C-alpha cells in the first residue's frame, strides 16, 4: 500500500509559516483530513491493469511480391514486403533492409525498388530483425523486334548441309545477346530438313522454305536442293560367302551406292563367275553349284565391284549300300543312286534305276543305313526312312512304300539307325533300342514274332550301338558286350545253338567289341584288343577263318592286320586295315571282293587299288568304300565291276 498523499501533506505542513500564536503544545494533535489518511490505491489499480494486458505480437515471417519478378534491362520494379506477426497481424516494415546477390544484374534500394542493370538473375533479400525472405529476379533484354537469318538463300546438293545464323534486334535496333527460344520449320521436309539447332540438310531435289521464328517475329531462308550427278561409289554383295553342295542354288543380292551414299534404284549391274564349271551365275545373281571346288562371283557396276566366295563341296561323309542301291551323305544331305523300283533312292519317283540324286529330309543327317530295298537315316534325334515298306520297315505306321524320306513315328532321341533286309532298328542317346518292321524270327527283340509298323522297344537300357542283319539284330552295350536276337538257323546269334531268340541274348565267349557287322546269316566283330571274331554261316568262307565250317560261337580269324572297320554283305565280309587298305573274304560270285575275279576266298585278302580308303560298307553282293577325298568307290553288284571303281556323279 502506498501513502504518497500523506507524505505530501506532511511536507506542506512543515513548510507552512509559524507564528507565535500557532505553536503547538505537547500533546496537541494535528487534525488530518480523512482523505489524507486514506491510502492511495489508484496506482495499485493501474499497476494491476498493466500486469494482465496481452503481449505484443512477434515477427514470424516475411513475404515478398511478386514472387518471380521479371524486368527488362534499364527498367525498375518496386517490390512489396509483408511482415507477418505471430498473431496473424501485419507488422510495420519501416526497418526492412534490402540487398542483392548480384548488383551487376539488379540493384535494390531501401524502398524496395529494384533496377535492371544487366542480363541474368539475382537474388533480392529482405531482412527484418532476424527474419529474411528472398525472391529471384530475372533481368531480360528487350522484346525481339526483328529477326534476320543468314544465309537467306542457299543451293545444296543432296546430303549437303548448311548452318543458319540468326540475328535478333530490339525496338531500338540494338542486338539482343541473351538466349531466346528460336523455332526452325521446313516447308518441305522431304526436300530439306532442319534441326533444332538450325542445320539444314538436303534430302531430295526441289525447293523448301525454312522459317525462323522468335517471339512472334520471323524471317525465312530459301533452300534449293539439286540432284548431284551420281557416280557409282561402291557395290556390296550379300552373302559374302557360302558353302554349297552340287545342285544347290543361292540367290545373291547386290546393292549399288552412289557418291551421295544413296542406294541406286536401277543400276546397270553385271554378274560373272570366275569358275563356271564350279558355280554359274545368271543375270539376276542366282548361283548354281555345278561342280566341286571354289568360285568367285563378281557383281560389277560403273567400274566398281564386289565379290562373293562360293565353295562347292561334294565329299561324302558317310556311305550306305543296299541290295541294289547306294547312298552317301554330303554335308548332311543324302544322295542316292541305283535300283529304285520301290522309291528307295528317295527322289520322289520310282523306276528300275535312278541316277545320282538328292533325297532331302530338310534336316542335316549324320548316319545312314540301307536295307535290301529301303533306306533310313537320322540327324541324331529324328529318323527318316524311304523305299519298300511291305513289312512296315519304314516305321511310319503304314505298309505303304515311300519315294521320299518319311519321318519315323513315335521315335525320338535316336543317335543311330541300322537297316536289315525288311526291318530297322535305332538306338537312343539314353541307351534304348527300338525296332520296327518284319519280325518273323523275333528280330525286333520285343519278345514277340509280330511285325510292327511303328517302333517297339527291345529290353535293356545300356546299349551304345545297334546293327541289323537280314533277319537278326545285335547291339553293343557300353562295356562292349554283344547281345543278339532274331534268326539263328546258322548260329549267327553266337549263343552256341540254332534256336531263334526274340529278346536280346548275350553272345558267348566274353568278348568286348568296338563294332560289329551283320550279314544274311553271319556276324563279325572287332575286339577292343584289335582282334576280329566271326560266327554263323560259313558256306562261302564269309567268317574268314580259312574254312567253310559253320560256327555257333565267335571264333578268332587269322587276319593279316588289325582292322578298324567292318562291313558284311549277304555272304561276304570286308574290313578296313591300316594305311587305307581294304581286305575282303567270302562269297565272290559278283566280284564283291574286289579282287578282279569271281573266286570266293575263305581268308582276308587285300584289294589292289590306287585309292586310300577311310571307310567301307557292304550290302547284298556289293561293296563300297570312301577314299581320303570323300569319294565313293564300289565293286560287285549291281554294277558287276570286279575292282574298285569310282561312282559316277561324285
From TrEMBL:
UniProt name for this protein: BIG2 domain-containing protein
Listed PROSITE patterns: RCC1_3 (PS50012)
Region spans: Disordered: 30-64
Domain BIG2: 58-138, 143-224, 231-311
Gene Ontology terms: cellular component: cytoplasm
Compositional bias (Low complexity): 34-52
GO molecular function, one term: guanyl-nucleotide exchange factor activity
Keywords: Signal
One Pfam family hit: RCC1
Entries under SUPFAM superfamilies matching the protein: Invasin/intimin cell-adhesion fragments, RCC1/BLIP-II
Signal sequence coordinates: 1-22
Amino acid at each position: 500500500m502506498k501513502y504518497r498523499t500523506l507524505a505530501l501533506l506532511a511536507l506542506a505542513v512543515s513548510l507552512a509559516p509559524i507564528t507565535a500564536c500557532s505553536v503547538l503544545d505537547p500533546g496537541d494533535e494535528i487534525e488530518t483530513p480523512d482523505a489524507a489518511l486514506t491510502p492511495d490505491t489508484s496506482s495499485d489499480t493501474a499497476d494491476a491493469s498493466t500486469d494482465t494486458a496481452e503481449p505484443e505480437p512477434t515477427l514470424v515471417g516475411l513475404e515478398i511480391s511478386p514472387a518471380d519478378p521479371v524486368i527488362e534491362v534499364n527498367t525498375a520494379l518496386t517490390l512489396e514486403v509483408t511482415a507477418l506477426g505471430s498473431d496473424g497481424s501485419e507488422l510495420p516494415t519501416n526497418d526492412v533492409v534490402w540487398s542483392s546477390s548480384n548488383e551487376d544484374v539488379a540493384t535494390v534500394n531501401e524502398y524496395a525498388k529494384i533496377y535492371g542493370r544487366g542480363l541474368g538473375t539475382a537474388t533480392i533479400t529482405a531482412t527484418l530483425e532476424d527474419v529474411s525472405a528472398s525472391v529471384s529476379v530475372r533481368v531480360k533484354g528487350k522484346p525481339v523486334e526483328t529477326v534476320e537469318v543468314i544465309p537467306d538463300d542457299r543451293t545444296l546438293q543432296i546430303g549437303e548441309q548448311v548452318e543458319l545464323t540468326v540475328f535478333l534486334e530490339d525496338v531500338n535496333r540494338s542486338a539482343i545477346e541473351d538466349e531466346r527460344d528460336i523455332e526452325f520449320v521446313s516447308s518441305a521436309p522431304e526436300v530439306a530438313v532442319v534441326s533444332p539447332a538450325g542445320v539444314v540438310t538436303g534430302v531430295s531435289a526441289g525447293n523448301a522454305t525454312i522459317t525462323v521464328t522468335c517471339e512472334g517475329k520471323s524471317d525465312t531462308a530459301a533452300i534449293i536442293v539439286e540432284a548431284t550427278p551420281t557416280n557409282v561409289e561402291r557395290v556390296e554383295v550379300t552373302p559374302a560367302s557360302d558353302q554349297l553342295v552340287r545342285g544347290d542354288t543361292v540367290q545373291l543380292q547386290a546393292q549399288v551406292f552412289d557418291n551421295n551414299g544413296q542406294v541406286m534404284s536401277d543400276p546397270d549391274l553385271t554378274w560373272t563367275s570366275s569358275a563356271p564349271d564350279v558355280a554359274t551365275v545368271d543375270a539376276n545373281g542366282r548361283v548354281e553349284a555345278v561342280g566341286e571346288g571354289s568360285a568367285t562371283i563378281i557383281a560389277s557396276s560403273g567400274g566398281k565391284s564386289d565379290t562373293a566366295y562360293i565353295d562347292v563341296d561334294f565329299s561324302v561323309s558317310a556311305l550306305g549300300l543296299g541290295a541294289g542301291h547306294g547312298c552317301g551323305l554330303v554335308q548332311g544331305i543324302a544322295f542316292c543312286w541305283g535300283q529304285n523300283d520301290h522309291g528307295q533312292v528317295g527322289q520322289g519317283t520310282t523306276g528300275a534305276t535312278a541316277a545320282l540324286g538328292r533325297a532331302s529330309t530338310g534336316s542335316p543327317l549324320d548316319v545312314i543305313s540301307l536295307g535290301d530295298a529301303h533306306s533310313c537315316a537320322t540327324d541324331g534325334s529324328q529318323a527318316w526312312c524311304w523305299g519298300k515298306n511291305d513289312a512296315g520297315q519304314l516305321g511310319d505306321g503304314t505298309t505303304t512304300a515311300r519315294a521320299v524320306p518319311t519321318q519315323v513315328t513315335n521315335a525320338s532321341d535316336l543317335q543311330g539307325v541300322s537297316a536289315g533286309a525288311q526291318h530297322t532298328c535305332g538306338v537312343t542317346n539314353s541307351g534304348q533300342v527300338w525296332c520296327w518292321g518284319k519280325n518273323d524270327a523275333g528280330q525286333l527283340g520285343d519278345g514277340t514274332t509280330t511285325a510292327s509298323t511303328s517302333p517297339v522297344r527291345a529290353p535293356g537300357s545300356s546299349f551304345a550301338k545297334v546293327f541289323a542283319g537280314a533277319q537278326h539284330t545285335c547291339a553293343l552295350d557300353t562295356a562292349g558286350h554283344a547281345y543278339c536276337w532274331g534268326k539263328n538257323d546258322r548260329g549267327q546269334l553266337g549263343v552256341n545253338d540254332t534256336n531263334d531268340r526274340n529278346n536280346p541274348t548275350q553272345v558267348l565267349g566274353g568278348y568286348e567289341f568296338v563294332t560289329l557287322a551283320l550279314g544274311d546269316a553271319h556276324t563279325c566283330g572287332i575286339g577292343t584288343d584289335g582282334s576280329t571274331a566271326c560266327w554263323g554261316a560259313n558256306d562261302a568262307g564269309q567268317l574268314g577263318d580259312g574254312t567253310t565250317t559253320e560256327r555257333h560261337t565267335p571264333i578268332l580269324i587269322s587276319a593279316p592286320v588289325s582292322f578298324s572297320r567292318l562291313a558284311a554283305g549277304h555272304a561276304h565280309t570286308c574290313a578296313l586295315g591300316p594305311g587305307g587298305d581294304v581286305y575282303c573274304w567270302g562269297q565272290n560270285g559278283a566280284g564283291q571282293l574286289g579282287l578282279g575275279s569271281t573266286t570266293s576266298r575263305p581268308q582276308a585278302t587285300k584289294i589292289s587299288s590306287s585309292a586310300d580308303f577311310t571307310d567301307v560298307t557292304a550290302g547284298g553282293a556289293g561293296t563300297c568304300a570312301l577314299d581320303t577325298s570323300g569319294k565313293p568307290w564300289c565293286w560287285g553288284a549291281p554294277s558287276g565291276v570286279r575292282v574298285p571303281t569310282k561312282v559316277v556323279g561324285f
